């Protein structure tokens, strides 16, 4: 791949353009909002404006509702040898394109499983896709050369290719992306009118649950509106669990000992099923979740504190597998949770104490 055209210079389109440009591909940038294309170009993502002739690959990075029409226009204009989109829903655009009577041999649907709470070209980064799955949904008509172009794009962006059927993809993202976003927003909505005293008690748990609720609502309306059936199916299951849990909690308020016992079992059931589901979430390097132990360290909110901790862990010969930070409300301090393999805990704790760190159980 020597040349590419990116149509749609939001977070995903600009990030892909930055990654390609950094690897020597000549990228052209087009957007219905000229200011967005100018911003992406100013960030080094490529040259603003359409190319003079066909490019190797056209990347359609527009909302799902506009994918088919944008692709059709590009195809009819002979913009590229191969075409792909990066929308988060695949079945609908694929059916729309087929309905337009276009030759789909030069097209492949794709979806990079990566993003941020922020959108737009200013939020884009060249490393956005590194190590992340990038789904490819070829049709039976997709030409091998176009599949190879898509695989080259994925490789240049540092992502991991995953080939799926379009409908299976849409059911999967309803489960692992779209429904979680709605549920996160529902939990976060409880905070909107909550008493300030309660809100000040927010800890890491509520921050984890509501993190993705900070995303742009209009963008997510477009995404979910393109995949309503599978999302509704998953959400119906969540609603059933909610109903059962509410009944279990009401039973715990009963004066009847048997009802309280049944209520406790009901709550325990949903928690245990949650444990089982969480255990299936892929861990580091895509494998199963590893059994890490946590070493918690108190740090002050000053420059260089994290660098010191990591340097001291290196001094102990310990690899930090993961890290989380919990900020203390109203204080210039916080807790850093260092996840390490169990065998590394003694060496790490000994070194950190020797270096003057305050550890917490």
Automatic annotation (TrEMBL):
The keyword Transport does not apply. Residues 2-283 form the Prephenate/arogenate dehydrogenase domain. InterPro entries: 6-PGluconate_DH-like_C_sf, ACT_dom, NAD(P)-bd_dom_sf, PDH_C, PDH_N, Preph/Arog_dehydrog, Prephen_DH. Pathway: Amino-acid biosynthesis; L-tyrosine biosynthesis; (4-hydroxyphenyl)pyruvate from prephenate (NAD(+) route): step 1/1. PROSITE patterns: ACT, PDH_ADH. Gene3D superfamilies: 3.30.70.260, 6-phosphogluconate dehydrogenase C-terminal like domain, NAD(P)-binding Rossmann-like Domain. One of its GO terms (molecular function) is prephenate dehydrogenase (NAD+) activity. It catalyses: prephenate + NAD(+) = 3-(4-hydroxyphenyl)pyruvate + CO2 + NADH. It is an enzyme of class 1 (oxidoreductase). Coiled coil: none annotated. GO terms for biological process: tyrosine biosynthetic process. Its EC number is 1.3.1.12. It comes from the Bacteria. Residues 1-19 form the signal peptide. Residues 294-361 form the ACT domain. Keywords: Amino-acid biosynthesis, Aromatic amino acid biosynthesis, NAD, Oxidoreductase, Signal, Tyrosine biosynthesis. SUPFAM superfamilies: 6-phosphogluconate dehydrogenase C-terminal domain-like (SSF48179), NAD(P)-binding Rossmann-fold domains (SSF51735). Belongs to the prephenate/arogenate dehydrogenase family. PANTHER family: PREPHENATE DEHYDROGENASE, PREPHENATE DEHYDROGENASE [NADP(+)]. This is Prephenate dehydrogenase.
């Amino acid at each position: 791949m020597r040349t590419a055209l990116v149509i749609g210079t939001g977070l995903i389109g600009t990030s892909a353009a930055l990654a390609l440009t950094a690897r020597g591909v000549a990228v052209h940038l087009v957007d219905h909002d000229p200011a967005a294309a100018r911003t992406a170009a100013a960030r080094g993502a490529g040259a603003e404006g359409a190319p003079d002739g066909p490019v190797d690959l056209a990347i359609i990075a527009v909302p799902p509702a506009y994918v088919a029409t944008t692709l059709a226009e590009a195809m009819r204009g002979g913009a590229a040898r191969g075409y792909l989109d990066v929308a988060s829903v695949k079945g609908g655009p694929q059916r729309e394109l087929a309905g337009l009577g276009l030759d789909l041999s030069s097209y492949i649907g794709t979806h990079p499983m990566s993003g941020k709470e922020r959108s737009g070209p200013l939020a884009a980064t060249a490393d956005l896709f590194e190590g992340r799955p990038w789904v490819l949904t070829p049709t039976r008509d997709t030409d091998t050369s176009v599949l190879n172009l898509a695989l080259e794009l994925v490789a240049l962006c540092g992502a991991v290719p995953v080939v799926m059927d379009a409908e299976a993809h849409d059911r999967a993202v309803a489960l692992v992306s779209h429904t979680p976003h709605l549920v996160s927003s529902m939990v976060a909505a409880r905070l909107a009118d909550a008493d300030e005293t309660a809100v000040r008690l927010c800890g890491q748990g509520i921050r984890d649950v509501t993190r993705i609720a900070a995303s742009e609502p209009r963008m997510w309306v477009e995404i979910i509106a393109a995949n309503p059936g599978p999302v509704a199916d998953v959400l119906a299951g969540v609603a059933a669990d909610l109903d059962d849990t509410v009944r279990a909690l009401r039973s715990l308020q009963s004066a009847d000992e048997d009802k309280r016992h049944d209520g406790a079992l009901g709550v325990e059931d949903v928690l245990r099923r949650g444990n089982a589901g969480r255990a299936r979430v892929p861990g580091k390097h895509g494998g199963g979740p590893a059994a890490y132990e946590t070493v918690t360290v108190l740090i002050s909110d000053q420059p260089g504190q994290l660098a010191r901790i990591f340097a001291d862990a290196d001094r102990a010969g310990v690899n930090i597998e993961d890290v989380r930070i919990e900020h203390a409300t109203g204080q210039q301090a916080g807790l850093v949770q260092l996840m390490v393999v169990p065998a590394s805990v003694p060496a790490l704790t000994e070194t950190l104490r020797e270096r003057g760190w305050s550890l917490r159980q």
